[in-house]
Amino acid sequence: MRALLLLLAALAAVAVAQKDPHWVDGRNTIVHLFEWKFSDIAAECERFLGPMGYAGVQTSPVNEYLALPNNNPSRPWWERYQPISYQIISRSGNEAEFADMVRRCNNVGVRIYVDVVINHMAANWPDATGYGGNKADTHNKNYPAVSYGSGNFHSTCQITNYNDANNVRNCELSGLHDLDQSQSYVREKIIDFLNALVDHGVAGFRVDAAKHMWPADLEYIYGRVKNLNSQYFGNNARPFFFQEVIDQTGSEAVHNYEYTSFGVVTEFRYGKELSNCFKGNNAIKWLVNWGPQWGLLPSSDALAFIDNHDNQRGHGGGGDVLTYKTPKLYKMAIAFMLSWPYGVTRVMSSFTFSNNDAGPPANGDGSIKDVTINSDGTCGNGWECEHRWSEIANMVAFRNTVQGTSVTNWWDNDSQQIAFSRGNRGFIAFNDQDNTDLKQTLQTGLSQGTYCDLASGSKVNGSCSGKRVTVNGDGTAYIEILSSATEGFLAISADSKL
Questions:
Q1: What are the TM regions of this chain, as residue ranges (predicted)?
Q2: Cα separations (Å) of 385 from 23, 44, 48, 218?
Q3: Which one of 29, 166, 366, 449 is most buried, counting C-beta atoms within 10 A?
Q4: 72 has a pLDDT exceeding 60
Q5: CA of 239: how far to CAs of 113, 222, 246, in Å?
């Protein structure tokens, strides 16, 4: 009995360890640099993410994937989710460039998390060829570069009934050939792939389509992946796993909480509900108890985000979320996420698109364009780079400053204006009410002095490029957010004191 208890305790410890993102102290928030090249990610870690206090980068899938027939410069983004092999070769770069990126980012305290596609392989295509030149006979489920044959897949059937867990987990999502992860051979191939990434120094993985795999199979696979590279993470550190499980209504057969005993889960309700609030469809005063009381997962089990590469295009969990296309409301939702103590936070960094299938900005030969940086710090060449918007980057710094504090001094106007403190380290206010200004003297919880508003400007060399807020000796301050203002929030922190 004692041996059994010790074993169970050890397994529980491993499961908890797989929820640790291994951030460097004093940092927070993952940014998804969607479709970026490895060389550009490395440069961004060094020139911006590290200095600004970001904790990590989620990459797009790095393994070889389908190059659609009739190749042209406008490659659809969803090619990346049709694997041909587990070799590290893609439009983002080769294995040497990947290794260089991971090393350079780790060296400046920015962790790398790879989006891994292990539920399926590419769907049926004529003459299916990957970016590394490997071919597959997709019609016969033959992927020799792995190698997988038809016997390594579930029987061909399509997902048609989300009220049937067997259908969701054993059939094909949009015709993508569904791997059978219960097979030892398939498991070992996947584990070998993840181990190769661990050897390079990644901190963990975003697991695509986890909802479509059996929890027991994933638990086994995760548990057999080796510990992280000790060069960066010390001894016995477990990879961080965050899993894509879309469960917005709780009415389907597969539930997100089925996956929380061995990793974190992407909480899709988070962005949907916050977007609904800041769009004015639900009063933001109700956010006073934001978290599990709204039907969300416990904070320790959740990856929190507003939008991702799927739902900003109207699928993969719905198209009712705020995105960069509605900047004022979007920045307010992101600011609330980064100011509220819940979950592991992730922000999206997009390329500009109008066609939902459009791939990243590309050169005439089909290669991905460089991410260029304008003189004002924004991105060029068709890259949106929301993570560089000063309001969002400053709120990442705000979250770093208020770590470990609780929500205090809540105030609301019984509608669409709210404010609260984070202990004695930060204060934030929101005005989401049309044609109504916020003009109130409120308790900030901060010490007396003059502070730089992180929404309208930045503190640089002791000066403020935006509004200044004066906090009185009793901690109160006059807070003004006009309904006509470009930004719908105001934030000050102990580190923005002038």
A1: none
A2: 22, 11, 12, 33
A3: 29
A4: no
A5: 9, 8, 22
Tell me which of 178, 208, 310, 453 is the catalytic residue: 208
3-state secondary structure 410-475: EEECCCCEEEEEECCCEEEEEECCCCCCEEEEEECCCCCEEEECCCCCCEECCEECCCEEEECCCC
C-alpha atoms less than 13 angstroms from C-alpha of 193 in its C-beta half-sphere: 27
3-state secondary structure (DSSP) of residue 316: coil
Judging by DSSP bridges, how do beta strands 379-380 and 449-452 pair with one another? unpaired
376 noted as active-site residue: no
Amino acid at 273: E
* pLDDT greater than 60 at residue 312: yes
Half-sphere exposure of 122 (CA within 13 A, CB side): 35
Phi, then psi, of 267 in degrees rounded to 5? -90, 90
* pLDDT on residue 364: 87
- What count of other Cβ atoms lies within 10 Å of the Cβ of residue 292? 13
Closest to 201 in 3D by CA, of 301, 56, 63, 16: 56
Place of tokens 């939902």: 356
Element (H, E) at 269: helix 268-278
Measured CA to CA in angstroms, residue 169 lies from 164, 165, 185, 217, 380 at distances of 9, 6, 18, 11, 41
If 0-12 CB within 10 Å is exposed, 13-18 middle and 19+ buried, where does residue 3 land?
A: exposed
Among candidate residues 180, 244, 310, 453, the one labeled active-site is 244
Which structure tokens are listed for 351? 């390329």
Residue 282: partners with Cβ closer than 8 Å, 6 or more residues away: 273, 276
CB atoms within 10 A of CB 245: 26
Which runs of consecutive H residues, i.e. helices, occur in 37-146? 38-44, 50-52, 95-107
**Buried residues in 32-65 as b, exposed as e (16+ CB within 10 A):** bbbbbbbbbbbbbbeebbbebbbbbbbbbbbbbb
- Are 180 and 154 a contacting pair, CB within 8 Å? yes
Express each pLDDT in 341-394 by its tens digit.
999 999 999 999 999 999 999 998 889 999 999 999 999 999 999 999 999 999
Across the chain, what does the average pLDDT equal? Answer: 95
If phi > 0 it is left, if psi is from -120 to 50 it is alpha, else beta; for residue 293 that is: alpha
| Cβ contact 268:317 at 8 Å | yes
Task: Work out whether the CA dihedral 305, 23, 259, 223 comes out positive or negative.
Answer: positive
> What is the C-alpha R_g of the chain?
23
Please give the Cα distance from 137 to 472 (Å, whole number): 71
> Would you place residue 320 in the very low, low, confident or very high pLDDT band (cuts 50, 70, 90)?
confident
Q: By C-alpha distance, which of 311, 303, 378 is closest to 343?
A: 303
Tally the C-alpha atoms within 13 A of residue 287's C-alpha that lie toward its C-beta: 34
